Amino acid sequence: MLKRLLPNLACILCNQHSNSAVCDFCKNDTAFFYDPDKPTNLLHRPEIARHVKHSAIDGLYAIGPYQWPLNQLLLRLKTSRDMRPAGVMAEWFVCAMDDMCLPDQLLPVPITYWRYFQRRYNQSVELAKLVGQPLNLPINTQWARRKSARQQTGLNRQQRLQNLRQAYEVVNTPPCAHVAIVDDVITTGSTVDVLAKQLRLRHPHIKIDVWTMAVTLAH
Ligand SMILES: [Zn+2]
């Protein structure tokens, strides 16, 4: 299925001739977190974990830092209806997560109806589908809701956090022991942490991982 999304044209990043959606040169320029000598769970790497809020999550898995070309692939996924960037990132994610303990269900982070109306898709759902398919994992898109919240600009830190807490609501507790929340990019970790806390309240023993394509390391 991933192959069908990746026609043999030009590299979507540099436009040079390529047999894959992203050419070998661009792939070689990508910083991957994957390192056989280090834990795959990024929360076990202090140099990465300290950048991400994780009071209610057990594991964090990502391809690499939010920088070129992952930032470009993510931007393209959100602003065009081109799904090739999602195919590339899903393939890179699955390859790097070889020995990982798989969850029972994938839970994509919801977007507002307004955003969905504008974009016509939720990028986290599309990524969850492409990552879940080769791993044979079911996707639950009905687990949480994103309400239209106030703009975050002009609010202080406390107000922003309060605003975020009110913006997301877990509506269905997944009937399983281990889940992975799927988000396209993790900037501070606040969003997934808010959702994970709500899940944890309803289901104290659930194991909660976060699967994302990129993590912002410098704030
Ligand atoms: Zn290229």
Q: What global shape is seen?
A: globular
Average residue pLDDT: 90
Q: In terms of structural class, how would the helical and strand content be classed? A: alpha/beta
DSSP strand count: 6
Overview features:
16% strand; Rossmann fold; PRTase-like; ComF family protein; alpha/beta; binds zinc ion; 219 residues; 4-stranded parallel sheet
Description:
It comes from Alteromonas ponticola. Belongs to the ComF/GntX family. This is ComF family protein. It is a single chain. The protein is of the alpha/beta class and 219 residues long. It has a single domain, classed as Rossmann fold (3-Layer(aba) Sandwich), CATH 3.40.50. Helix content is 37%, strand content 16%. It has nine helices and six strands, in the order H-H-H-E-H-H-E-H-H-E-H-E-E-H-E. It has a four-stranded parallel sheet with strand order 1-6-5-2, with helices on both faces. Helix 4 packs across helix 5 and helix 5 packs across helix 7. The protein is globular. The chain starts with a helix and ends with a strand. The relative contact order is 0.19. The site of zinc ion has 8 residues, from helix 2.
Concise overview:
With 219 residues, the chain is an alpha/beta fold.
Write the layout of secondary structure elements.
Blueprint: H1 2-5, H2 24-28, H3 46-49, E1 59-65, H4 70-79, H5 84-96, E2 105-108, H6 113-119, H7 123-135, E3 144-146, H8 157-167, E4 168-170, E5 178-186, H9 190-202, E6 207-215
Parallel strand pairs: 1-6, 2-5, 5-6
Antiparallel strand pairs: 3-4
Helix pairs in contact: 4-5, 5-7
The structure holds zinc ion.
